[in-house]
Amino acid sequence: MHRHVDNKWKTLIFEDMTTRAFSRHDAVLNEVTSSASFQDMLSNVASLDCTLIVPSTAHKRAALVTLTRQTTGRKPPEIYTLATYAQYIVRERSTENLRLLNTADASLILRYAARSAGLRLGSIDFSIHRLLRWKSEGITRDELLEKSADEFAPRHVRVLDGFVRIWSAYELSKGPKGADRVDVLVKAARLVLEAPKVADRRFVVWCPHTFTRAEAALVRAIGVHGSVAIVWAPSSDAQLVNERTSDMIGWGWENVGGEDTGHSSDDAVTRHKSIRVFRESTRVEEVRRILLAIKQAVSSGGINVRDICIITPGSSEYRRQLQERATRAGIPLAVDPQRTLHTSGVALALRAACDVVGGAWKRADLERLLRSGFVMADSTNAGALLHAATAHRVQGGQGFDGWKQKLSSRREVLRIVHERDEEIDRGIRRTLAVLDEALRTLAWLRLILGDDDRSIKGAAYTQMLTAFLERLGIARTAVHLEKIALSENLPCVEREALVAIEALSERYAVLTSDVDMPLMTIAEHTREWWELVRATKVRTPDVLLDGIPILTPEEARGRMWKLVLAPGFVEGEFPLHEHDPLEAEVLPESALRKQRAAFEDIIHATSIDGHLVVTYPKEVDDSDVLPSSFLRGLDIEPHDEATFFLDAYERTAHTGTGLRDVKGRQRAALPEANEAVVQSTAEADESAVLSSGSAALVQYVADIVNRPLSASRLDVVAACPYKFYASTILRLDVEHTTDDTLSGLERGSMMHEIVRQFYERVRGRSYRTITTTEELLDARVELEDIRRHEYMGILLDVYMSVAPLYDTDHTYAETERRSLLGGPDGPSMLGTPQRPGLLYRWLAHEIAQQSKSAMRPALFEYELDVVVGGEAIRGRVDRIDVAPYQFDDGHNGVQFAVVDYKTTKASAPSAKSVMLGEATQMPLYLTAVHAEFLKHGIEAIPAQAIYRTFGRSLKTVEDPKDLAVLANPSEELMQNLFNTINEHVKDMRASSYPVAPRPKACDRCGFQEVCRVASWGTVQRT
Ligand code: SF4
Is the pTM for the entire model greater than 0.70? Predict the structure, then answer.
């Protein structure tokens, strides 16, 4: 081939390639050998009774479409690739009952052979591809051994020796019945030679680049009895062609084309092809450039979509990017009618199920299975299990029992928390229900999946796969999806995938039985089986053949388009540099020759006077890259980005609407056109109004807001009505879980339980109800400093019995334990006065407080259920301390204090917020306890409300503290506070929940995304 460059026009001019062909016996085929193009050749063969051999299945598809149109009413020629033709011959004519192995099957056998030879394929860089490549070129094991003896360095000797051992084990495992693709070619050649049929009469072999020795054997065999015309690809290697066909010539084949050197003759028709090379900044820009070129070419009217092709010689990333962006750009691409099985939902769900069992029930695997959308069962709730796993930090990996133990223990903890919680609607009941559902779903999965990664035979593994498909509902889902897709006229590959998976699983059973594969664990089987899945393709129903095809150079070989676009001319990707000295030694130059042929295939895919647009990026993954050395050979300067095409395409500046974070709903920056939309959105967001809803909705809201008053709900309303709406009415969840530590709720619950049990152990009994003043005073617990050591022992005992319920495997469990017990002497001493733990400090604080006051703890976790001013109040008070009190008229009563435990001072409301009515808990409790006592005829006056902190860690020495928020409150103050509470109650029942947070409320709220306060500001409170 000669080429030169016209610098003025940046046009590369190619001289014609000589078509060379060989035929025998049959002059009719001579005409075919002079075909100028793929389409010409198809026209010529359409009227012939012949078999057509093409380089790839892409050629086969294209040829089928054309020939079916041209041979209406007649049988079109049979079309095969050389490999599929060989399979056809073996299937049709062999009496040996052979098992045809595809590359994935052969690879499975090779891996098994390597294991049985005590070697690993990866460690010596041996693969089925290398083996088949060598085998197809006639390299034998003896040759390898000879090479190792003659020429190789010690490392290569070891490697080659390993190859030979594995290769021998492979042939042994495969046995005489197993036939890989090279065996199939050789057997087909023998069958054709030994038992020719009428169908072997006339063949056209279109555009081979070269033949391997095994392929050459088959073609030669066909030519012994029949007529064959070979039209070599323009990119074929003349020297290799001569080498592979010289013996054919000797047998009487003839060269009917030009010279057999492959170079053009002087009178060849000169073809003018323009090549434009573009350097773009990134791969994405290359793709945009290509789409732009297509749009311009088509809109110019000069080129039809059918005359355009995209060839991707390098990274597969271009194919993905093109498919993604072409649809958006309105450019039809021919959709690849095949898809790898492992990308189907059915395969992914089944793989996840296998991984769950093989990986000891890891959460990630279980999530993949349950989120696949293919698990179908009426009585289970996958969502609940997933939610529970996230909320309760289950990581899995300890089998089914690990899950069960973790979720059950969490359920137990929450049950206790729920018993103590003053709130009945705080979500705990719902969480418990979710946990119940999760445990049920877990049991169901256990029934189907089993629990142990047992060692089994391939056949048993296949049975397991079938059971998973059926019992998990994966098969039903696939069928169901197909039905829906059909009714909606949408493409769906899942039914095909199901059939392929079933067939493939059966094949796996047979293969493992044929090679007598030993027992393997489920994880090991899954790895092997998945390799087969990855190598299997399924047909997709969304075939679109009329669009622009995206092809590899081999798929484009021997075909022509007016506009060819080829991205990815990056050195290292195309040509791909694989430094493989062994391959270079065994099959010299084969890799380089293949790459060069690919380049020539691209060049020759452009028709006479056509255009080839080649692109490459300046950088990939933020690193500079070099253009392909093939381009340097062309000697063409890349065009500057701005020189060609309309750069305005896709580069028009987009002016956004510019929503600004504005307080008070200023929207000055919004353009006119968006105003109406924004207005309606804003109004919808401004306030959630429920009174105009359906009767059911109104009732639903009424049920919530008319429940007995609870402090935490009122505090939310006081903080922001919209927050109440989001959390309590919409029941939106904001996850605050952490894997690292106990949650605030858990820690609080644990400490409450420890305190309650400690005091009840010291007192020797527990009181749930109190009916008289005497009984109440009797219930008080007095701590004595001299018994401190005894108390510490009790505290330790109580801690030891309570902690296991909460002592989960979070990251800092041990740190938390230390912070409570102190150190370094550990639990036996509950710390020391020098290194006191939080429990030690708490006890010291309790004793100290008792020495300063007559108040003594009497009631713990006390349930309130009273009516005050017509409003029911319900809740649970952490602790009520009481002291005897004598009223002015001389009769006896009690003075009481309400104590609420907090972890740290920061988590307690301030006295100011209590006085402002923003934190309603203490006023509400003081009022309710007062009413509760009165209900039992106990006269009492509120003395104070106290937040008592426990502290959180040893590092921050925060000794337990008291934060008195209401000391000796007057009746008037209590009435005022209750009036404020009533205002909140009204807000709660107003059926209108504006975004009106009190200052700093948003800092601790997780609903910003919902209320969009950042965008729209707040409604000012009046
Ligand atoms: S983020 Fe602020 S405005 Fe929004 S719901 Fe929460 S408290 Fe209310």
Answer: no
